[in-house]
Each structure stands twice: as structure tokens, then as C-alpha cells.
Design brief:
- It contains twelve helices and nine strands.
- The chain is an alpha/beta fold and 362 residues long.
- It has two domains: 46-206, no CATH class; 268-361, no CATH class.
- Helix 1 packs antiparallel against helix 7 (231-247), helix 9 (285-302) runs antiparallel to helix 11 (328-338) and helix 11 (328-338) crosses helix 12.
- The radius of gyration is 34 Å and the shape is flat.
Length: 362
Amino acid sequence: MQRANRLSGLGAIALVVLILISLFAAPRNSILNSGSTYNRAADGYGAWYAFMQEQGTSIQRWQKPWDAIKAEKSPVTLLQVYSRLSFPVITSQERAWIEKGNTWVILGAQHPVTAAKFHTMQQSSFGDVKIATRRRYAKGEGKEVLLGDRFGAIIWQKNYGKGKVIFCTTPYLAANAYQDYLSNFKFLADLVSNQNNAIFVDEYIHGYKDADVRNQESKGDLLSYFANQPLIVALLQTGVFLLVLIWAQNRRFGKPIALETPVLDNSEAYIQALAGVLQKAESTDFVVEMVGKEEQLQLQKALGLGEMLLEPQALIDIWVEKTGKSSTELATVLKLKSQKRPMSERELLSWLGKWQSIRNNS
């Protein structure tokens, strides 16, 4: 008994270790990480960030709350790549910050889907820019279209005092997936650098925070992080559950429940037995006759006709009149139903498939 208890305890410890390893070793790529310059996946911006550094552009990752950027004395350009499409709302505080000469670039502004093609090549001064979205913003007053087509604007800007906000309907304008389209990289680079401001890429919205910010938000160490997450509740529940299993020696409480005997469907059993006999006897004429009558009856009901089987030509004429479709396929299945020669298994399956196609088009 003691040996069994020790084995149960070791098994529980091993399970807990596996859970912890899976939590810490799991990939960090998630929806929140989409659009991050730390992300090397197709939806990340690591390649574009490296491109900007290679060009000698002064660019930094911003890993603080938005309110902290107001302390910057010189005008800045803040680039935000949303992890998912969102409706951007400019608050009064944000507008006051923009009016001082700051620029805010937002990629992933949600707007309605139009009739435009999903993949398009948009002309720009840097060459063709590849866009993968049907979303467009209706052109209106007070907005300058920077990239768009006859369906609406893809990238546009709106001025507020000395500053401006630039919107884009796709968050993937210069994602890693577009490394072969240098025009995309150059176009975004021009959007954030033509004001000669200090350029910041917002990583705070992707979950990256400076050490002082983490300490201020009481998330400076691992224990405090788990203490503030719902995950700690799940771990505690798992621990209690494992203790119960160990105490009960992995046995259920209460009396065992007897399994119920499944109820036999006599009709289904009869049909399966009959089908087996007909298949072995290679007697398809009976199947064709019975199924053909039922299929024709169902078709007549779909066409609003009675339950008395019509002559083949009469049914064909009504089918053409009501559906406007060709009578070839219907005439074929009706002809095969009346033939005396037994069908092969392949011909029978093809015949049933044609009936199904006719039902779907009726």
C-alpha cells in the first residue's frame, strides 16, 4: 500500500512538472504578438524594424504606457500596429497631444469591407505596394488620401493643429510576409520619417514593458505575476484535484455504474441485412427500381407536383419549365432507371450521384 502511495505521489509530481514546463516552454507567438517588431513570424514587423536600422534611421521601441509619451519635449512619431482590427477613437487628451506637432500612425483601423479584390497592387512613388484587404475608408472632407483606389482609401491622414494622424486599413502593410516587396517597407518608412521626428514603435500594446514599468505595475517577479493572473486559480484547482486522486488511490467515489445495453434498431438492422444480400447477389435492379421511384417522388414534391409518379417525358418538361436548366441529366437518370440491364457498382454510384445533383438544383 505504501509503495502504491509513493508511486501515486511521484506521478502527481511528474504531472505538475509537465504542466509547468508546457507553460514556460510554449511559444510566445500569439494574437497579442502580431505586429510586434520582436516577432519573426509572418505577421511580425521584425524585418521592417531591421530595415529601418540598416537605413540609419533613428528608431526606438516604446515599452511604456501611452500617457508616458506626453513627457517627450520634442515632437515624436508614434507607430502602432494593432494585433487585430480595431476602431481607432481619438480622445481629447490624444488630440491635444497631436496638435502640438506629434504624428500618430495607426495600422489596422477597422472599416467596412468593399467589393475590391483582396490582393491588389497600389501605385505609389516607391513602386507598387501590395495590399491584402478588401476594407476601404470612404473618401471625405478633411482627409488626405495617401494610398487608395476607386473603392476608397487604404491609407489616409487627418491633420490636427500642427500634428496629424495616419490611418491604414490593414495591419500587415510592412509585415515580415512582405520582405520581397521592398516598396511596402519604403512606403511605411516614409510615413513615419518624413516629419523628421523621433520615431517610436509601440511595443507596450503587444505586452512588452520596461523593467521600471513592470515594477510599478507590481509585475516585477514571477510570483507576483502569477498572483495577479487567473492562471493561479487554475493551478490551485489542479493541485487540489491531484491531492484528491492520490487520497482516493485514483478510484471513483460511489458504486460502479452498469453500462446500458444499446437498443437495437430492427429497421436499420433489416435494411443492412437486405443490402448485404443484394450486394452479394449483384442484384441492382431492385435497388434501382425502389430508389428511382423514391427519388422521382421527392423531385416531384420539390417541384410542387403530386405524389403520383409522372411519365418521364412529362416530368422532364415540367423540370425544364420550372428550373430553366438542361434536361440532359434528368433524362439520363430516368432512362437508366427503366433499363433492364443490371448496373455495376460504379454505374450505380454514378447514378445515385446524378440524382443528388438534380435534388440540389431543384
